[in-house]
Amino acid sequence: MEREFPIESIDALAIGAWILGTGGGGSPYLAQLNLTNLYKQGKTCRLIQPEDLRDDDLVAVVSQMGAPLVGQERLIDPATLARAVCLMEEFIGQKFTAIMAVEIGGGNVLSPYLAAALLDLPVVDADAMGRAYPEAQNTSFAIGNLKMYPLSLVDCRDNESIVSKVPSWIWMERISRTITTEVGSVASTCKAPRTGAEVKEWGILHTVTQATRIGQTVLEARRNHNDPVQAILELEGGKTLFVGKITDVDRVATGGFLRGKAKVSGLGNDQGEDLVLEFQNEWLVARRNEEPIAMTPHLICLLDTDSGDAIGTETVRYGQRVTVIALPSPEILRTERGLLNVGPRTFGYDFDYRSVFAI
């Protein structure tokens, strides 16, 4: 039950995933160019619904790992992603029947497509976050306490590594992040293989369709000269948090992450107020006059006020006119088990999760 993923949908998927990425996952622009070029060379991609996976199918879960800022200079290579999948097959002695993204956010939504175009594998309409997050223990598979190893890692210099066994998701993050940092803070990875049954039970399902629909909504709003930000809010049931201009950015690439803050000074109804967005690859907390008003796991999205395009933590800059919105997160992330993996305290904040939609 596979269907062709047309070249015309690439841009919509990238726009929508960049919004769902909450500032992370890396800008999709270069991956868009890569995938479009592969299509022009005669390659194609197919999409398979998670319900159509057999329970014993084996699914490769891929991503680019590292600091998004570095990804603007060290360009993604589809062959490196494909090699990470093949390396995993060699290690486990089994072949994959499909491939999926670890996160729906940003450029990483296109990572499985780049590998699939070379390997002739279908891409699953699902991911393991429903957004983007910086660390291995932030996935729905970690929330389900599924097996976290092995992991394969390949870089552009032909360094290849296998993390064969670890005692916990946190150890998987620490070891794989250290390797990634040593090879230049960007690498292609294939995570622990998943069965079709595991994907259906613990994956965040139909997020490729969701991202594509968001992108199509933005493009349609632009064509009709409507407000694309409002169109996103209406489609996804979101909430506007703040409108203003970027007046300060403080960020540093360290330990394989991009960390920092961005300050938004209010315009219009928010004139005289300030909003600070704090990030670790992704926007995690929004503070209005120092009081947290939105926080992980809900999606905090920084959008260009006019175009509706998402703005990433590596691309935010002084002077941009922006609208900050919040979108609902997948339900599993807001469960008691989910908040242990993706709630504010997971990222070092000394406060508990509070829904922005209850304010």
Characterization of this structure:
This protein is an alpha+beta fold. The protein folds into two domains: 2-207, CV3147-like fold; 226-358, CV3147-like (Beta Barrel), CATH 2.40.390. Helices cover 30% and strands 28% of the residues. The protein is built from eleven helices and 18 strands. The protein is globular, with a radius of gyration of 19 Å. The chain starts with a strand and ends in a 17-residue tail after the last helix. The model has no long low-confidence stretch (mean pLDDT 95).
Key features?
359 residues; alpha+beta; CV3147-like fold; CV3147-like; seven-stranded antiparallel β-sheet; globular
Could you give the topology of this structure?
Blueprint: E1 2-5, H1 10-20, H2 29-40, E2 45-48, E3 58-66, H3 68-71, H4 78-92, E4 98-101, H5 111-119, E5 123-124, E6 126-127, H6 140-143, E7 151-154, E8 160-163, H7 169-182, E9 186-190, E10 194-195, H8 196-202, E11 204-205, H9 207-223, H10 228-236, E12 239-254, E13 257-266, E14 274-280, E15 282-288, E16 291-295, E17 299-304, E18 321-327, H11 336-342
Parallel strand pairs: 2-5, 3-4
Antiparallel strand pairs: 1-2, 3-9, 3-10, 6-11, 7-8, 7-9, 12-13, 12-18, 13-14, 14-15, 15-16, 17-18
Helix pairs in contact: 1-9, 2-5, 4-5, 9-10
